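The following record pairs a protein chain with its ligand, flavin-adenine dinucleotide.
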Amino acid sequence: MRSHAQVVVVGGGVVGCSVLYHLTKAGWKDVVLVERDQLTSGSTWHAAGGFHTLNGDPNVAKLQGYTIGLYAELERISGQACGLHRPGGLLLADTPERMEWLKMAHGRARYLGLETSLLTPREARELLPLIEEKHFVGAMLDAADGNLDPYGTTHAYAKSARIGGAEIHERTRVTALSCRPDGTWDVATTAGTINAEHVVNAAGLWAREVGRMVGLELPVLAMEHMYLVTDDMPEVIEYNQAHGRELPHAIDFKAEIYMRQERNGMVLGTYEKDGVPWQPRTTPWDFGAELLPPDLDRISASLELGFEHFPAMRGAGIKRVINGPFTFSPDGNPLVGPVRGRPGFWCACAVMAGFSQGGGVGLALSQWMVHGDPGFDVWAMDVARYGEWATRRYTNEKVRENYSRRFSIRFPNEELPAARPQQTTPLYDVMLAEGAVMGDSWGLETPLWFAPKGVEPRDLVSFHRSNDFPHVRAECLGVHQAVGVTEIANFAKYELTGAGAEGFLARLMTNRPPREGRMVLTPMLNEGGKLIGDFTIARAAAQRFMIWGSSQAQIHHMRWFERRLPADGSVRIRRFDQGLTGLAIAGPRSRELLARLTDEDVSNAAFKFMDHRALDVANVPAMVNRVSYTGELGYEIWVSPEYERRLYQEIRRAGRTLGLVLFGMRALLSMRLEKNYPTWYRELRPIYGPFEAGLDRFVDLGKSEFIGRAAALEERKTGGKLRRVSFVVDAADADVLGDEPIWHGDEVVGWATSGGYGHRVDRSLAQGYLPVALAADTSGRRFEIEILGDRRAATVLREPPFDPEGARMRG
Ligand SMILES: Cc1cc2nc3c(=O)[nH]c(=O)nc-3n(C[C@H](O)[C@H](O)[C@H](O)COP(=O)(O)OP(=O)(O)OC[C@H]3O[C@@H](n4cnc5c(N)ncnc54)[C@H](O)[C@@H]3O)c2cc1C
């Protein structure tokens, strides 16, 4: 064993081998993979080998598309066959709701450039005669679906990596990891110690154990999973002979079953409702290439349904049953990227679909390591998307929920119940008593809307406008006509202090740091000039700044901030999380309300739009920002949690004669649409530049150097490729949700990022991205946005439909 390497990859499953290959492809040759047993000996060897592009996140779907396209390249480089079969796959819908979901997926596939088509049950049966037609209302065919040989494919990655200069050591276990003062890692193995600049945790079933070696408890858990392989089936042989091709794959949502041809028989696997975690605390190191005892009783309900839906399967003999463990994160997407606070330690784990995602994970991670940026939008896979609240117990509950819903529809207004409530604010029970319907926002219970007396506080899940519609409308109109209060605890909040704080902000953000007592809005860019953050910054004192941003991105942002802190200690950063909480009041009477709660002068002259003040509000020490995402006159009041109940009660009391209403996140998001405000994760993501996103006002190219400035300058010069636009949509009873294709004539020219109903303007609204030339065209060009399979006319809005001059919030 050598004593030094640039990178040590821990784990020789499909993911570790993919990372290794991609590192060599990106030009790093001094890379070593260490495998405890032999390649594939974790979860990889007993996989069913299926692959597909469908994913809830379009960016992950793109990486899945990349993975599938990679196999031909691997075979060419390595000379090793991957055992590819590409018969396509059918997704079978048994209800109109599931069919609507497929229509949405089909629409999304269009802008991802994937080849899908919608079929009637009869057409589906023509392709897969095993189907009993009467159980289904329709299907979608995805031409990219297929399957491969897991062993051959992993070895194709490994051989390609070796050809690229990598070394692989089998039967060598990593036993400990320690960080030297110079930031490099000592990787202790059963064959000696390697000093490395980077370590990649691709340890699959042992990812938790390798994480623990550096003091991390990663949110990952293995579940037992069963599939069976049938004996030869005459129906299969007959079809192959008649058509000269294999049967397509199938996913049956109702039965939670996937199915495909294997030689002259079928493979049938199921994600049962009552899945069983495997080794919930610690994976034994001596677990070899073993299978777990099958338990057909556990999957009998799914099998029974499967036999009804595919009657020929009932008569087929079972050749073998595979029960093996594989890992999941709480939301089912991989955990990829650098770990905050552990420079040089990277994750590539919790990859539950290694043969759909392994290539994309390897590509993204290698680019991140070599170039400092993954080169894609990998937010949905970033290991930084979880906070401290994603404990082992939380992970266990969420992974079981996710497993049981593997093929279930998630409705846009559906909040999943497992592991809740995990975090609550002091107002949780108070707001529940007032009829709040709560949602989960980064592990925190957050009010979505309030059911008036006599109305059940519960969402009826749907792709259409639902039972919350009139109540959200009443909340929006209440804010608009008088004043409303909502809780805004679900923001990220940071405090930046020290002599170097101003310079630090100037270097990280595109806008100038504000003067004392003032606030600015500012994007943050990566080196490539793409959006990686969007913040509100207030200057509380000469050397003290308060920063608010997206809660979901806070570990990601802390990772970014901390790595860039000056070494001289002149800047300190503190993340509050729930150590600071807030209430927002908004509406034309919000100033009057605030005035009733403080003896300070809050007139428009004394407390202007975008001012920041330290005030006593209702006898509570608070920081108050004069800003509102509603587009109305409004204030955000930030306090320590121990004061929140008092502040809330006093606001309620003082607001009684002002027409005060409660409002939730859904009303807030509806009102921001009417102002054309973008939102993080939807309109603002690392695939867009600041000018493309229409944030021109917040990019000061004339100030001192900042990260991404050169690229931003270039984008401004060329105009970029895309432009964020807002639309008014001729919708029926379903609004745009996000990720729908935008049509012009017979062409898909863009995609929607979000949408909803604007109650103050009484219109269905949407935002999305179009190519620059189309967005600039003022000739009254007609666009259409595809909502649940229907193309609805969409007209570009040149200014916000609500209060375009901003008079209401400034007044
Ligand atoms: C029954 C079943 C069916 C499946 N079907 C499919 C399917 O159809 N399609 C699909 O895409 N996926 C499928 N999967 C999932 C797929 O197997 C996984 O996504 C994939 O194997 C994950 O690969 P990995 O490299 O992350 O992990 P693993 O395969 O677990 O690899 C991790 C490797 O790390 C090594 N290791 C761990 N710790 C150390 C250490 N300290 N030192 C050195 N080496 C170490 C292990 O020995 C192991 O070889 C299935 C899984 C199961 C169980």
